[in-house]
Design goal:
- The structure is a single chain.
- By secondary structure, the chain is an alpha+beta fold.
- It is 54% helix and 7% strand.
- The protein has a 5-stranded mixed beta sheet, sandwiched between helices.
- Helix 1 runs antiparallel to helix 2 and helix 12 packs across helix 20.
- The protein starts with a helix and ends in an 8-residue tail after the last helix.
Length: 659
Amino acid sequence: LEELTDRLGVAWGAVKHLKSVRDNEELRTAVDEVQPERVKLSLRISQSEALYKAIKSLREDEAQWSGLSNAQKRAVDAELKDFELGGVGLTGDAKEEFNAIQQKMSSISTTFSNNLLDATKAYMKVVTSKDDVDGLPPSALAAAAAAARDRGGHPEATAESGPWALTLDMPVYLPVMQHLKKRELREEVYRASITRASKPAEGKEGAVAGEDGVLKNGDNTPLILETLRLRKRKAALLGYDDHCSVSMAKKMATPETAFDLLEDLRVKSMSYASKELEDLKEYAKANGGPDDLKHWDMPFWAERLREAQYSFTEEDLRPYLPLPAVLDGLFSLLNKLFDIEVKPTTQNLEKPHPDVQIFDVFRDGAVIAHFYLDPYARPAEKRGGAWMDEVFARSSLFGSEPGTCRLPVAHMVCNQTPPVDGKPSLMTFREVETLFHEAGHAFQHMLTKVDCGLCSGIRNVEWDAVELPSQFMENWCYHRATLMSFAKHYETGEPLPDDLFDKIVAARTFRAGSMMMRQLHFATVDLSLHSAAHFDPESGDASKIFELEQKVAEKTCVVMPLPEDRFLCGFAHIFAGGYSAGYFSYKWAEVLSADAFGAFEEAGLEDDEAVKSTGRLFADTVMGLGGSLPPMEVFTKFRGREPTTDALLRHSGLVAASA
């Protein structure tokens, strides 16, 4: 089965990656043409009764079953579940309908992503007056001027003199919301952001559905409703109550335990979020702000409050966080924790883009993996966010010679501030955290010690456990020895001042209640949309989707979303990614990751030998075992017990509320 699916998986993986980082009309057309055939082949495999019976026979034959390794047994069980969820038990009209649903959902997902990328690119506010950019830090001015040069038709644009293009790309959008003094411009940019892809694009108002039955007019609203309807129908064909139940069939959690976790964290966080809002209102009012804070005021005044409380800004940190030094620090940490070395490759390999860097990973002097790092934002062709994906998985089946394994290869993709005006990429602290986060994913894939390709690396890891290594790695950004090892001024080489480090750590829990509630809102909306007990997409009324979000917000938001908020039209995680009825996984895995980092705290973070020995155990279990064992079993092998929420609440500064 692995041999049957690997060739297509590798080839289509390359296409998907290029679609994400080098998007263009020619590639879109090619994907639209080939994708139906790709889905047909996937369905043919997943619904093959011969394959299903062959794999099931391994499970039913005691002699064969006892001869399999733990990894192989996990692979068999996972494949049987995939066959069942893939419709192998369906026949006749039910099978035909199921396959049509799969085809259409694939087209909708691609269209949703295209619409979001196009809508993000479409908004641009070119300003020429310095009054219109008052408050923006130098890095944001440089990014806005670069956008004006590259996309706004102003080759003469400079950071100092403009013109400047205000866009919805994160290197510009976030500084605009946090620093731009002109309130009406913040409002315009905010409203543009929350309504992306929520109406037909200019020039596409009269578009009709294509051969795949999908309307491609730039509006994601009908696509959301149709996706929810198709997911519900697919669940019914498979014998499940709703898509939420289908999603949980391959996760640690159940619908009940997922909702319970979110509610438990909501109760423990809401009072903090409410207090933070009152503090913000009082601070803004006392410092010349409006009496009635609006949504586009919150990030601006929150940043002013943070600066007042901790006496530093993100811009103060940038000069100490040039990408080359941050990478050196990350690789040094990986060496300490996992006894590996990371070096730029000496091979002359083709790159998807000139910005991409390629690295080799060594253990005991031998190469064990490779990865591509694509760090910078390219709004015209690259989707937003950050992610990791596989190129190849480790597998004994594809070794170059008997007794060897094919080495794992990964992509790490970020969208951080690019080098501007001869300076290296000077990162925000959040961009550093994001880089460490994606490294956690990538190195779980690359440090696997499992030879069975169907469950090596990140493969076959339950979705609600897959964020454990990534969120674990973020904790090291707040570890003094780790951060100070690379945080040095890019011009002078001076280390980050001690008092600035102390402020970073102190500010970690700034508005932690609000941040917690934000994630809980997204996760609860996701579960509710996919739960038969909370939402029925058969009404055909798209407004009901946004009514449900508003209803959830009554419990999860201290400030209600605007009535016209269409955030869901940009929620690619659940409508064009793998997180449908699974966004709660971030919080589920955060419990695991915080508890895992707690093991290092207990061992002694300043004790290098204790950190190394604990790191080796983490490498042998969480990073090394991947999907070869159930995630709770992997966690207990590392921690010696099941996880608790104590460390997460402590790291978030919400301990008192849990008493």
